[in-house]
Design goal:
This protein is of the alpha/beta class and 146 residues long. It has two domains: 66 residues; 67 residues, no CATH class. It has two helices and eight strands. Helix 1 runs antiparallel to helix 2. The protein is elongated and about 80 Å long. Keywords: Membrane, Transmembrane, Transmembrane helix.
Length: 146
């Protein structure tokens, strides 16, 4: 927890204890019946305020998530770059622009999507097989299938 967050936590705790002490003194001074009425009104305001804050938090979180998520590149246009740098891979490594089933596809289907694909491995090591492609249709063969 950062120093600023710790400061806010302590300030919130002290504020809560002060409000609780003030309400206790007010209830003792006014009597139980007036305290009951006042606590009902205060509880309503706290509940409505909590509901408004939760709606605001949900809307702002959704807005932040939508604005911070970059759009997925289209498989029909643009450039896809797959890069592995200074990494030790203990198994197989497959890099491709598109993965898809072979059902209903013809040979020409794999050539109509456009876009450039750059697959690069720089440094590091790969302990298994390496497949670098633009389009992969069907399953990638396991080492035993070769």
């Amino acid at each position: 927890m950062t120093r600023r967050a710790r400061l806010f936590a302590w300030a919130g705790a002290l504020l809560f204890l002060g409000a609780l002490t003030g309400l206790g003194l007010l209830f003792a001074h006014r009597g139980l019946e007036a305290a009951d009425q006042l606590s009902s009104v205060l509880g309503t305001f706290v509940g409505v305020t909590g509901l408004a804050l939760s709606v605001y938090g949900t809307v702002s979180a959704r807005r932040d998530r939508q604005s911070s998520t970059p759009p997925m590149p289209s498989a029909r246009a643009g450039k896809v770059s797959n890069t592995v740098v200074d990494t030790r891979v203990h198994g197989d490594l497959t890099q491709a622009q598109r993965f898809g089933p072979t059902h209903g596809r013809t040979e020409t289907d794999s050539h109509d999507h456009g876009g450039d694909t750059e697959n690069r491995i720089t440094g590091g090591s790969v302990g298994g097989s390496v497949i670098q492609a633009r389009d992969v249709h069907g399953t990638v063969p396991a080492e035993d299938d070769n």
